[in-house]
Amino acid sequence: MHKLRRHTLLSALSAITVATLLVTGCSTDSPSTADKAAATTAESPASGAAEEQLAVVSAPTGDATPTAVADANAADPGKAKRSALKVASYDSKSGRAVIAAPASGSDAEPSATPSRTASASQDPDEADTGSDSDTDTGADSGTGTGTGTGTGTGEKPKPKPKPAVAVGDVIASAPAPGAPDGVLAEVTEIVDTAADGGTTVETEPAELNSVLGEGKADGTVPVDPSTLDVDPLVQGVKVSWAKTGDLTFGPEGAKLPLGSLRIDVGAAVEAAPDAPASAAASVEGFVQLAPEVAFSYDGSGAGTGSSPGGAFLGLTGDWASQWSLKGRAAGSTDGKPIRIPFAELHADPVIQVGPVPIVVNLDLVCYFQVDADGRVTVDVEQDLKGDFRVGGNFTWAKGWQGVSESHMSGEPLKTTVTAVGDVKAAMGAEATVGLYGTVGVTADIAPYLRAEADATAEGSANGTGSAQGSWALYGGIDLTGTLNLQLSIFGTPIFQKKIPLGALHEEWLLTKGEAKTP
């Protein structure tokens, strides 16, 4: 009897112990698992609150189209992650897009929303359910066959794949079919999901703070000169460029610095009505530049749904030009100088800000501009070098403000001025910089050469000359432009009108002289 009671008591204690272990887990594993869970919980708020420094670099080249997705259901929905999803097609008018899921078995990186990119047939839990259901269907199909209404096969229709994206997700993509300017859009409706997981969606334009979140970024990215499409507007335009590992040479063997684009041109200018044939006007020279896209973003506060703390978009780079003006040019028309565009350039460089591909739209129009009184005959030439920086800068304290800076210097190569009057010649570029097909900053960079004379005067840069009267030659730069409404793409407050960049005007004396005929 005692042995029986003892055995019963031990059995009960064993049962209690086993039940306790089943509830709490093995003592050697539980602390480790608990510690890991606690550590993850403790780290999440800190990592979400920290402002991540995002690198600003050129996007990788090749056939792959960079894509990032900000998951609306993530703990930090304003922070995008690199995704293997691709924009298969996009209609900019309707906002309808087809999002292609990664190919099965591909070695692409997982999507930012992996739980929603795999098809339902690949879900382990649903696969088990389908197996049980198939067994039941097989049992029922025997009866069903007798009535003529069963399938007779016991197979269950394959479940429809899950959508590749969800409503509220924000997609940032480099140029894709139907979207030459890239895509930055939020999914507003799931229209359909194909068997391969491709999802047709409705979208609306999104803003950068919805994919950059509370991150910070600051940097400049050179524009590969070989990617610029050049459309000559006058005869005689020659284009040369140089990039790392792939050198080309400018006319007359002039070797270009790496990353530079050079455009040489020579063109006739409308001559003054009373000018003799020997005083026919012409311009000739080249402009050489190494453009860079400047981008910065300060996402302080953006994670709470408010605007970022700061932003900048602009164009910067080195500039060199050398040009000459000869003859007697016609005067201004209705008070406006005569402008001769000689080349249009366009590029859509993709910069990578952390995991997010940002498509920059860059347009340049290179031109000559002449403002003369029609009496002065000149033969002047200038060599100019320097740099420039134009763009729009946003801060909470001051809102959007224009930035226009330039440091240039030149020297005269030839100076001959005859008659009384002034003439001003510029060789410049009108630049437009935008994001995802929207116009953000427009700037006119116009280095110029101005000559003046108060009598028949002829001089040169070395100080020699013979004339009655005096002459002077000046170099300078005019920089003007505007900020446009579309800069609100950063997620900043919208302004209702264009904001002037703030005109920059600088002029310096190159050379002057005064002499009397012996």
From TrEMBL:
Transmembrane segments: none annotated. Residues 141-153 have a biased composition (Gly residues). It comes from the Bacteria. The keyword Signal applies. Keywords: Signal. Residues 123-137 have a biased composition (Acidic residues). Residues 29-52, 101-164 are annotated as: Disordered. Residues 108-121 have a biased composition (Low complexity). Residues 1-19 form the signal peptide. This is Lipoprotein. It comes from Streptomyces akebiae.
